Amino acid sequence: MSVVSAQGQLLRTVPIVLADKSYALDVSNYAAGLYHLHLVVDGQWVSGAKVVVE
Length: 54
Fold this sequence. Notes:
This protein is 0% helix and 50% strand. The chain is mostly beta strands and 54 residues long. It has one domain (2-53).
């Protein structure tokens, strides 16, 4: 999973185990704002989400 800022800057890439049903992302070090999560499996886009950090 990749964490991308609203400006398009790649901030972090986190390996995800797909067998796990959930994942908790620690956003305590992120500034307030909008972030995009990108989930890519074997080079293929699977899903995306927007996260607002307050």
